[in-house]
């Protein structure tokens, strides 16, 4: 894989004034952390099940968790505790990625192109992709850049476009489904995406006329869904795995 700048696995948001909304959100994130055993592996155990794994491979801030939530809220067979596997964290915390080869009925999240993975860890990710389905979220590069800058990362539209091309090259032999950021927020377009996912995985169709659950625009509602997801895991009525406390 081509040499590239390393993007850390975890990065706090940029500094903000005392009592600002961002600071309050940071306090909430510390009290109710995203990384808990009900939400993500690690620290939770490796999820197993009969369905093929779904790889959500993305650039940061491109709709990763919106895509994960769309799948979890609308394909019941993938909703279990923990809700998904963070492949990047799993590797960088020193666990053997080969232990993931038996996983199933789960979603595997990765920012592969923005990580300095070894040949072994990239090879295992490819093995998981051969067993299941690869989905690549896609977003306007300017919006990704602006979002990353707000989180304290400095990048350019040109670098984002290059990373996106590298990602498509990495998965080119896996027939990935590329999904636009805007589509996962639109009920009708999300329904079409979910039909493709079910067809590729050999799953039954959704009930006729039923629109999928998508993330709404109400911040209080999304914060409530996020809190319940972190406290209840798969038992939460609507899953919201987004990392920050903004959406």
Name the descriptors.
six-stranded parallel sheet; 247 residues; alpha/beta; disordered N terminus; single chain
Largest sheet: 6 strands, parallel
Q: Percent range for helical residues?
A: 25-40%
What form results from the Cα inertia axes? globular
Q: What does the radius of gyration come to?
A: 17 Å
Structural class: alpha/beta
Please tally the β strands and state the result: 6
How far apart, in Å, are the first and last alpha carbons? 33 Å
Order of helices and strands: HEEHEHEHEHHEHH
With strands numbered from the N-terminus, the spatial order across the biggest sheet is 1-3-4-2-5-6
Overall pLDDT metric: 89
The unreliable regions are 1-6, 11-18
Structure annotation, total helices: 8
Strand share of the residues? 5-15%
What would you note in describing this structure?
38% of the residues lie in helices and 9% in strands. It is α/β, with parallel strands linked by helices and 247 residues long. Strands 1-3-4-2-5-6 form a 6-stranded parallel β-sheet, sandwiched between helices. Strand 3, helix 3 and strand 4 form a beta-alpha-beta unit. The longest helix is centred in the C-terminal third of the chain and has 15 residues, at 187-201. The chain is globular and about 45 Å long.
Brief rundown of the structure:
The protein contains 8 helices and 6 strands; from the N terminus they run αββαβαβαβααβαα.
